[in-house]
Amino acid sequence: MFDHHLWATRSLVEYLEALPPERLDGTIPGTYGSILETLTHLVDADERYLQRLGEESPPPFEGRGVVSLETVRSDLEDHARRWAAYLDRLDAGTLHARIPGREDYPDTDPAEGLLLLQAIHHGNDHRTQICSTLGALGQDPPDLDGWTYWAAGRA
Predict the structure, then answer these.
(1) What spatial distance separates the first Cα and last Cα of the chain, rounded to whole Å?
(2) In contact, 40 and 66? CB cutoff 8 Å
(3) Per residue in 115-145, pLDDT tens?
(4) pLDDT band at 58 (very low <50, low <70, confident <90, very high)
(5) pLDDT over 70 for what percent of the chain?
(6) d(C-alpha 141, C-alpha 113), whole Å
(7) Looking at residues 86-104, what average pLDDT do you find?
(8) Rounded distance, CA 113 to CA 119, Å?
(9) Helix, strand, coil: what percent of the chain each, to 5?
(10) Is 37 helix (H, G, I), strand (E, B) or coil?
(11) Which neighbouring-strand residues pair with 105?
(12) At what angle do helices 146-154 and 2-17 cross, to 10 degrees?
């Protein structure tokens, strides 16, 4: 699942790199924001999930605003290495994460399953929003489903 998660986001970045830069500002009602805002948000959220897998009380995340596709691509490469390391620890039975409770959220221990599930769901949700925006703006969005990922891995 994480191989697909990373492949789909990389594939989306490659697709977006071929578009005129002003197209990345496109937005439609009902989505997170512009294409680039949504992509930045997706990658920044993965960073927060990775931080929570590694430390119980990561520093507060400060929004960095919209970043370039080049920065997103660099972040994805870093994330791929870190996801692989955490998934290896999960397989070995040595991954443990805890999310301390807050007023609006209960203490969650163990939390690794929740963080992994949320990363997959959140990525799919926002990639879909970006593809919906592309379609509404007259672009033929890339196919990022499991079938396409599977076929790409066999080519």
Answers:
(1) 19
(2) yes
(3) 999 999 999 999 999 999 999 999 999 999 9
(4) confident
(5) 100
(6) 31
(7) 95
(8) 10
(9) 65, 5, 35
(10) helix
(11) 102
(12) 90
Q: Report residue 155's pLDDT band, with 50, 70 and 90 as the boundaries.
A: confident
Overall size of the chain counted in residues: 155
Angle at 90 (CA atoms; ends 42, 52), nearest 5 degrees: 45
What distance in Å separates the CA atoms of residue 89 and residue 57, rounded to the nearest whole number?
19
pTM for this one? 0.94
What does the block give as tokens for 53? 């897998």
2-154: CATH architecture: Up-down Bundle (1.20)
Report, in angstroms and rounded to the nearest whole number, the Rg of the chain calculated over CA atoms. 16
Residue type at position 51: Q
Tokens at 104, concatenated:
């609006």
Which residue shows structure tokens 């590694």? 54
Please state, in angstroms and rounded to a whole number, the distance separating the CA atoms of residues 43 and 72: 7
- pLDDT for position 134: 98
Tokens 């294409």, residue located: 35
What one-character DSSP code corresponds to residue 27?
-
pLDDT at 62: 84
Query: 6-37 burial, b for 16+ CB within 10 Å, e for fewer?
Result: bbbbbbbbebbeeeeeebbebbeeebbbbbbb
